[in-house]
């Protein structure tokens, strides 16, 4: 791995720890201001709005800008931004509108940082598929460990010292991340499409995803998956209390089981890709997720439910390493920001649909119904996208994306070995 990756890994690990702190602390801080569920929902939803409103445009901007500079400026801005609610908390003038505004701007900064990081990594690793899988496995594992395990309890503990403390801790994490990213090696900027407006460039990026069957399949999986997983998440706590008979501590253990599975899945993703082929591995992990949710729906006790969530988490962890790694290896550098942001935007837009679906099914039918519906949706999505992300398509896309002087490039093979462009 290039030496610069260690600094990028450390930066994202530190930032993920801060994210975990604020993920636990922000809702609790909001609870000190109001008990109105709608007001709390506004704070939560504000963080996702930037992806819905500016996802594709943000990707187009990232493809125009220097990716490293975009990352460290975004983290610097988020560090400064968090000082505002921290000062307001210290002065006892904190309010729900201020928290919602901060959540929105933090989400906007996250949009630019995440998109730029996704586009920067392939350049740093020379678009090597094996290195990309290893890198994404480490990044995903660190993110899960920090934001899923270490961050939330730290956030709760810091909140006991004062409402401003966890906010300041998150600000420090962003500042440290910005300093580390600033030391990363500079990469050549993509050749700009000077003739096109920003809207035209954004449209070209979205069109690139929808016209390519492999990229479309990679984008559909998290989008449909978010519908299913949010339907489950919406009723999971109620399902655990009413049907499994567990308490608050037990529910925390259920979530820990899922996060533990996610770490395992991220760790074995590269092995699965080598043994099965990336396309088959993606189909298998998607099927595992669907079968695991089906087992959760039928679970009669907390132990079966915990095992099902751990298996589901493993499938999700592996998918979230293999899918992005493949996308980073095959998408041209000048389109990487737009393709990544388009895929992420589809996933974010699908989340509210899943939450509404889960609540409606539970209210209209039974608390287990959203879980069964989510399992059916995941298995149907697996069947539909299996041919779109097959090993044959993956190998063809990797050959087409290889440098012209690479020995496995189509230009070095006979006519019978060349493959047609992978478009609809």
Automatic annotation (TrEMBL):
Q: How does it sit in the membrane?
A: Multi-pass membrane protein
Q: Which Gene3D superfamilies match?
A: MFS general substrate transporter like domains
PROSITE patterns tied to this protein: MFS (PS50850)
Which regions span the lipid bilayer? 38-60, 167-185, 223-241, 253-272, 279-297, 303-324, 345-365, 371-389
Name the principal localization, coarsely classed: membrane
Annotated Major facilitator superfamily (MFS) profile domain ranges read: 1-393
Q: SUPFAM superfamilies from the entry?
A: MFS general substrate transporter
> According to its UniProt record, where is this protein located?
Cell membrane
Source domain of life: Bacteria
Q: Does the keyword Transcription apply?
A: no
Listed GO MF terms: transmembrane transporter activity
Q: Name one GO cellular component term.
A: plasma membrane
- The ranges of region (Disordered) come to 399-424
Output the CDD domains linked to this UniProt entry.
MFS_MefA_like
Keywords in alphabetical order: Cell membrane, Membrane, Transmembrane, Transmembrane helix, Transport
PANTHER family recorded for this chain?
Answer: INTEGRAL MEMBRANE EFFLUX PROTEIN-RELATED, MAJOR FACILITATOR SUPERFAMILY ASSOCIATED DOMAIN-CONTAINING PROTEIN
Q: What is this protein called?
A: MFS transporter
Q: Which organism is it from?
A: Streptomyces canus
Q: What is the lineage of its organism?
A: Bacteria, Bacillati, Actinomycetota, Actinomycetes, Kitasatosporales
